[in-house]
UniProtKB/TrEMBL annotation:
InterPro entries per the UniProt record, alphabetical: AAA+_ATPase (IPR003593), AAA_ATPase_domain (IPR050168), AAA_lid_3 (IPR041569), ATPase_AAA_core (IPR003959), ATPase_AAA_CS (IPR003960), P-loop_NTPase (IPR027417)
Keywords carried by this UniProt record: ATP-binding, Nucleotide-binding
Entry similarity comment: Belongs to the AAA ATPase family.
AAA+ ATPase domain residues: 36-189, 316-454
An annotated Gene Ontology molecular function: ATP binding
SUPFAM superfamilies the record matches: P-loop containing nucleoside triphosphate hydrolases
Organism of derivation: Chlorella variabilis
Lineage summary: Eukaryota, Viridiplantae, Chlorophyta, core chlorophytes, Trebouxiophyceae
Pfam families noted in UniProt: AAA (PF00004), AAA_lid_3 (PF17862)
Protein name (Swiss-Prot/TrEMBL): AAA+ ATPase domain-containing protein
């Protein structure tokens, strides 16, 4: 393993093959007619170790490194950039003629060689010069020979480019004969994260409570750079303890330090897409036991018991649709599912998708799903789903923009078969406005009706909403639950809040507890917006949708 690197075995092996094999097996290559790759393109998310891997393998193989970056090449005068490029390749050729292994490393190659149709004149000239030099320099390859003291020595030049935006690189650079082999450097999986954490914590005095394997499992979507920042923050958390207790002895880094560090350092790929939210437990939601159990099966089980799913040949659901009246905790249930599963929650709203620019909404949708795949396990949550993707047959609902967004969304959902650990969750209180293509099996596989809580659920909800409200001993929440039929969770929360406000209105200075009369006043003020007939319509929707 290259010094200072872990969890990158495939990438390192591919670099070793391309760099050292042409000299080690030059005779066999001639006999077999093998042509070695002249260039590699490493691509992957930022922070995954692309640059570090190239430097480590070059050092390991004793290769001369020639670094090319946009900052070192681009000059202020016409022709200066092209001259600097020629100087780099001339120096590389000189080393190769001396029988050395040579690496010409094009770091951030997308900024050096952008697509010429959108590039400025200077950038286009740099691209053209680089392509000419690549065709000339890499032609040396293992054919560059020198006779020294009666021995024949071989020199070899390998051109390696690295980028986090491969589609921004000029296509001419990626054709065979130039950067012909492309290597994806992915975000490390759980096993790779464990290896990286073991390497990063070698100098950290860890407490026995730190389980690196469990920590690696919880760090979904973290790159190597993110894990390095996590370990640094955990160490700083231990130092902060010494700062508050200066007389204490040296303290070990504990599991609590890593928990605190994870609140400050998240996966960099999720920044700008994931949402920070207050963790919610299943017990923080009153009632809805059947819905909770089905959500656990759809969200938690595929992650916690993936081995059992594979053993029985089961595939996790691609999508879960929650529908029901407003105020019945649909969004809260999604947050609880994300908290329990440890998945990254990535929300999408209509304000993000709909733009005055044609195609921008579809691009945002594709980028969201791309990030979700990188930081899996993740949940892509579309609240008020009916406002995002209406029925295409309804001209009043479905404009051209809506139809395009819906088509892009269906395409992304169909592509989730290759994205393990990505779940789409939608919530709506107008399921009849959804396009039929959304709710077929294979897209939203699980459709759950979220009803208002029953009497037991209302009692649990009242107990939850009055946790911080001081009540007198004669307040009977069970009686209140019995007389609040058809109340939603949001309306029960409003009843508790209105009762507390009624106590303040009586005596804002001296009020200490909430009395039964305050709840009586609140119940007279707040009325349910649903009737039994409305609930019957909600319950019948899945059956009607299946028939249609």
């Amino acid at each position: 393993m290259a010094a200072g690197l872990a969890g990158m075995d495939d990438t390192l092996e591919a670099l070793r093959e391309a760099l050292s094999w042409p000299m080690q097996y030059s005779t066999a290559a001639v006999q077999l007619g093998v042509r070695w790759p002249k260039g590699l393109l490493l691509h992957g998310p930022p922070g995954c170790g692309k640059t570090a891997a190239v430097h480590a393998v070059a050092l390991e193989c004793g290769a001369a490194m020639h670094l090319v970056t946009a900052a070192s090449i681009v000059g202020a005068f016409t022709g200066e950039s092209e001259r600097r490029l020629r100087d780099v390749f001339a120096a590389a050729n000189k080393d190769a003629e001396a029988g050395q292994l040579v690496v010409i490393f094009l770091d951030e190659v997308d900024s050096l060689c952008p697509r010429r149709e959108s590039a400025r004149q200077q950038e286009a000239r740099i691209v053209g010069q680089l392509l000419t030099l690549l065709d000339g320099a890499t032609a040396l390859g293992p054919q560059c020979k020198q006779v020294e003291h009666g021995k024949q020595r071989l020199g070899h030049i390998l051109v390696v480019g690295a980028t986090s935006r491969p589609n921004a690189v000029d296509p001419a650079l990626r054709r065979p004969g130039r950067l012909e082999r492309e290597i994806l450097v992915p975000i490390p999986d759980a096993a790779a994260r464990t290896s990286i954490l073991r390497l990063l914590t070698q100098r950290l005095p860890l407490d026995g409570s730190v389980d690196l394997q469990q920590l690696a499992f919880e760090c979904h979507g973290y790159t190597g750079a993110d894990l390095g920042a996590l370990c640094r923050e955990a160490g700083m958390s231990a130092i902060a303890f010494l700062h508050t207790a200066p007389r204490s002895m040296m303290r070990l880094v504990t599991a609590d330090d890593f928990v605190a560090a994870m609140k400050r350092v998240g996966p960099s790929m999720a920044r700008g897409a994931a949402v920070e939210y207050r963790p919610i437990n299943w017990d923080d939601i009153g009632g809805l036991s059947a819905v909770k159990q089905q959500l656990k099966q759809a969200v938690e089980w595929p992650l916690r018991h993936s081995g059992a799913f594979e053993r029985l040949g089961l595939s996790p659901p691609r999508g879960v649709l929650l529908h029901g009246p407003p105020g019945c905790s649909k969004t809260t249930l999604v947050r609880a599912a994300a908290t329990a599963s440890g998945a990254t929650l990535i929300p999408l709203s209509g304000t993000q998708l709909y733009s005055m620019h044609v195609g921008e909404g579809e691009a945002i949708l594709r980028e969201t799903f791309r990030r979700a795949r990188l930081v899996a396990p993740s949940i892509v949550f579309l609240d008020e789903l009916d406002s995002l993707v209406g029925k295409r047959v309804d001209r009043e609902i479905a404009s051209d923009v809506t139809a395009r967004v819906l088509s892009s969304f269906l395409t992304e959902m169909d592509g989730l078969e290759l994205a393990q650990g990505v779940l789409v969750m939608g919530a709506t209180n107008r399921p009849q406005a959804l396009d039929a293509a959304l709710i077929r099996p294979g897209r939203f596989d699980v459709i759950l009706y979220v009803p208002p809580p029953d009497e037991l659920g209302r009692l649990q909800a009242l107990q939850i909403h009055t946790r911080k409200i001081p009540l007198t001993a004669d307040v009977n929440l069970a009686t209140i639950a019995a007389c609040t039929d058809c109340f939603t969770g949001a309306e029960l929360a409003a009843v508790c809040r209105e009762a507390a406000l009624a106590a303040l209105r009586e005596d804002i200075e001296g009020a200490r507890r909430v009395h039964p009369r305050h709840f009586t006043f609140a119940l007279g003020t707040i009325q349910p917006h649903l009737t039994a007939a409305d609930l019957a319509e909600w319950e019948a929707w899945p059956e009607r949708a299946a028939r249609s």
